[in-house]
Design a protein that fits this description.
Blueprint: E1 2-8, E2 11-16, E3 26-35, H1 38-44, E4 55-56, E5 60-66, E6 74-77, E7 80-81, H2 87-90, E8 101-102, E9 115-119, E10 123-125, H3 132-135, H4 138-154, E11 161-165, H5 169-180, E12 185-189, H6 193-200, E13 207-208, E14 219-224, H7 229-238, E15 239-247, H8 259-264, E16 268-271, H9 277-288, E17 298-302, H10 306-314, E18 322-326
Parallel strand pairs: 11-12, 11-14, 12-13, 14-15, 15-16, 17-18
Antiparallel strand pairs: 1-2, 1-4, 3-5, 3-9, 3-18, 5-6, 6-10, 7-8
Organism: Yoonia sediminilitoris
GO molecular function: oxidoreductase activity
InterPro entries: ADH-like_C, ADH-like_N, GroES-like_sf, NAD(P)-bd_dom_sf, Zn_alcohol_dh
Length: 329
């Protein structure tokens, strides 16, 4: 098969790779849509020791099952694999499994390839009325869906407004999840003017530049979808007393939080990583029934042009919140 392979910082090669061989209880998936995630970008820049070269990246995927009784079935892939037996897995918190693995981290190759293998319980059937490009968004949106669910629980469900920091797919997915989960007023802070235009026009969001966010604006709930010191500083400054910060960005590990203000104002900080299997299924269901909108704001490119897509994202030249690659285009 053909695959896009990470060969080192800012180096991607499109070439032949070994076909995956499904094990018992797994299916072989013909990948037809796979998104470029922020974590893929971190690896591409050489900032993720968990993803050493050479490696096939990519984990936001949808496609068709090849072979067997389910041949031709359209599915979206939950890429997170837990052990299934630990306390976390047994109590529905499989995202906290100490043995959790995700495709695109060794020893599991990722989905920037024509085929990938995945176990049956990680596959969600996609109805014919939903495009696979939209179905591939289940993974990134599930991150925001899970964060919103946790934050609302900490607020006892009482959230009249929210601030989302970052207008990429993670931030936009969080904004869509906030609306779908009943938060009526959502503002996105996004520094890229090209992306703000898409967010406000095509995506129907209220996106503002960082300088246009009033210094005294306070929100019940703040979602940081970026995770840098500067964005954490913004989050801790704009959460209201008694509010909640949901932190799902992995930009850098330290700095930014105003711990004194958070302590004095009883602001809750929740770090969240990925989602539970149920969150993934709930997000997929929200995609299928239209609660998250048309999800037509992605840009599609062939996998063969993946290296250029990464370089364009790196240079800030892409307006779309998400680029979807097609390995069979």
């Amino acid at each position: 098969m053909k695959a896009l392979i990470y060969d080192g910082p800012e180096k991607l090669g499109y070439r032949d790779a070994a076909d995956p061989v499904p094990e018992a209880g797994q299916q072989l998936i013909k990948v037809l849509s796979v998104g470029i995630c922020g974590s893929d970008m971190h690896a591409y820049l050489g900032h993720d020791d968990r993803r050493p070269a050479p490696l096939i990246l990519g984990h936001e995927a949808a496609g068709e099952i090849v072979g067997g009784p389910r041949a031709g079935e359209r599915v979206t892939i939950n890429p997170l694999v837990g052990c299934g037996t630990c306390k976390a897995c047994q109590t529905g918190h499989d995202n906290l499994c100490p043995e959790r693995k995700i495709i695109s981290m060794p020893p599991r190759e990722g989905a920037f390839a024509q085929y990938v293998a995945m176990r049956d319980e990680n596959l969600v059937t996609v109805p014919q009325g939903t495009s696979l490009n939209a179905a591939a968004l289940a993974e990134p949106i599930a991150c925001g869906w899970h964060a919103v669910k946790l934050a609302k629980r900490a607020l006892d469900g009482a959230a009249a407004n929210a601030l989302v920091i970052g207008g990429g797919a993670i931030g936009l997915g969080a904004a869509l999840s906030l609306t779908a989960q009943g938060v009526p007023n959502v503002t996105i802070v996004e520094p890229n003017a090209l992306r703000r235009e898409v967010l406000n026009g095509q995506c129907g969001q209220n996106a503002v530049a960082p300088d246009d966010l009033p210094n005294d604006a306070l929100f019940d709930l703040v979602i940081d979808g970026v995770g840098y010191a500067a964005t954490r500083a913004t989050a801790s400054a704009h959460a209201r007393p008694g509010g909640v910060i949901g932190h799902i960005g992995l930009g850098e590990g330290t700095g930014g939080l105003d711990v004194r203000r958070m302590t004095l104002q009883e602001i809750t900080f929740i770090g969240t990583y990925t989602y539970t299997a149920q969150d993934f299924r709930d997000t997929a269901a929200a995609i299928f029934d239209g609660r998250l909108g048309p999800l037509d704001w992605t840009e599609q490119r062939p996998l063969a042009e993946g290296a250029t897509a990464f370089a364009d994202i790196r240079a800030g030249l892409t307006a779309a919140p998400k680029i979807i690659l097609n390995p069979h285009a």
